[in-house]
Design goal:
With 193 residues, the chain is α+β, with helices and mostly antiparallel strands. 21% of the residues lie in helices and 21% in strands.
């Protein structure tokens, strides 16, 4: 049944028809219900939630050609690069992705480091912090993605070239204490003889 009344968004379907999107829960989530900035920082989400939301976020990103070439030059195979989930964090498009993830997961995204509420010309919105660069998923011993690290593009004036995606200082949680687990490095076999 195609009903416009009560929909939260109208878009064009694959066949060119008009599609009305409705929420199936009684808990509407709209731009007007974005929690206020400041106050007590929300508790960081548990590892399963972090993995679920970070995986959905990474699925929306691609790996740029320059970043792939850099990883291959470091000895990783294309299969290892894809399996490890390296992606490129662009400058633009983050707000759209964050809005889609907030629609899907609700306010849980605000408990995930990197997702922040900002104030803009059109009001408050959710977006993702972090410098543009190559995203390195940080995994726990159970292979869950529990943090994102970014290798910054271009020269760095100060600090590390690698930084964690965080909401610290913007009303959200930081990445928390993390143990480092070695990334899989799969070198291509060298020809014999």
């Amino acid at each position: 049944m195609r009903v416009e009344t009560g929909c939260f968004r109208v878009k064009e379907g694959r066949d060119g028809s008009t599609v009305y999107l409705h929420r199936l829960t009684s808990d509407p989530q709209s731009r007007t219900s974005i929690p206020p900035a400041g106050g007590i920082e929300p508790q960081r989400a548990d590892a399963d939630t972090l993995n679920e939301i970070y995986s959905a976020f990474l699925a929306q990103l691609t790996l740029g050609k320059a970043h792939r070439e850099n990883l291959v030059a470091r000895g990783l195979s294309d299969e290892a690069i894809d399996r490890n989930g390296y992606k490129t964090l662009p400058i633009g498009g983050r707000t759209r992705i964050a809005a889609e993830l907030r629609e899907r997961f609700g306010d849980k995204v605000l408990r995930v480091p990197g997702f922040v509420v900002k104030e803009g010309d059109n009001g408050r919105y959710v977006t993702v912090r972090g410098p543009a660069g190559m995203v390195v998923p940080v995994r726990d011993p159970a292979s869950r993605i529990v943090a994102l690290k970014v290798r910054r593009d271009g020269p760095t004036d100060a600090g590390s070239r690698y930084v964690y995606v965080s909401s610290n200082g913007h009303g959200g949680p930081g990445p928390g204490p993390l143990s480092t687990f070695p990334w899989e490095r799969q070198r291509s076999p060298k020809p014999c003889g």
